[in-house]
Design goal:
The structure is a single chain. Helix content is 31%, strand content 20%.
Amino acid sequence: MKIEKSKISAIVGSQWGDEGKGKITDYFARDVHYVVRFHGGNNAGHTVIVNEKTYKLHLIPSGVIYGKPISIIGNGVVVDPKVLIEEISYIKEKGINPKLMVSDRAHIIMPYHIALDSALSGHQGKLAAGSTKRGIAPVYADKMFRNGIRMIDLLEPEIFEKKLKKSYRFSQGLIENVFKTKFDVTMGEILDKYLSYGEILKEFIGDTALELFEAHISGKSILFEGAQGISLDVDHGIYPYTSSSNTVAGHVSTGAGVGFRKINRVIGVVKAYVSRVGESPFPSEIHGVDAEELRKKGKEYGTTTGRPRRVGWLDLVQLRQSVRVNGLTEIALTKIDILNGFKSIPVCTSYDVGGKIVSEMPASLMAYQNAKPIYINHNGWDIPMNNIHEKGFEGFPDELKNYIDFIEKEINCPVKIISTGPQRHETIIR
């Protein structure tokens, strides 16, 4: 079979998440046939603002807002069916009838996964990643234990009951005997509730891998929307302070179930500064007046958790890894408007680790814990940012142009997309 070329693009986070992937995905979704989530769960959150209307999404891809593309939740995503049903209702209340398919192979978050998540967070102590306590890690663990339950099982009551007995007893034993915590949700309650979820969701459940393959060979355009960022990738991130899935572009094929031979475009979304929700060392983290200003101006509070985010200056060590591991073709630089008004803007170019200069992300947790940022200071800019997108890149002040040029040269990747504000139209394509 001859496989025709289709335009395949991926948008991934290049920091710790919260870079503005939702807006960038929404911007490009108007020109594609499919928008696909390929990993993670409702621990991720994307915010999109269109015509002063705010949309907050956790499972459904950001492209759903256009109404035109088909939204796909791939097999690599873990799904809380209750949350998905709520999100479908939320979208419909916003006046959008979602064109949605959910992989029949996607694994399901169960109540005991959520209970286990809370128990594990306490158990991990200082090495805890700062879990959202939504059951993400336990459901991925059950998947690898071959103990999991998939979306298709909700449509087959006999199979579901058999799998539930096995999985329930395993998790209940851990919760009550290992972590000494009472789990009082009965198996019967779960069985009835989740079969009712299946009835509601059955119109959306299907073979998304086959759907995407047929779209691919027919030349249709596909956009993959990543959740979180490079430093939260379970293999390439700051382990163990990571998510439980692979966030990098290379996971597109396994998380969607299609062996794509070529991804034409890989966009790494980069916030002009850095933010982080949760624990782990953070070399370029700042405190005090500048931190409070960044947090306030940037509305740095988690979409999913509401927690205040830790903030810091842009870290090019982190970005070099993202360029290399993701195979980025370009950068989408977001929130440059938040830096407006700062007289001086430091950029971390490397780390000092015990007197050794490190320019690439270390695997050693000890090295990362001891890393001290080495900064190069840039002159800031202070201009009216309203409608600056209308002037294009050439309308930027020299200080902002120099800031962007410096990033490009340091990480060897072009900045092709620049977000000058939260609205869809506040975007410049170079």
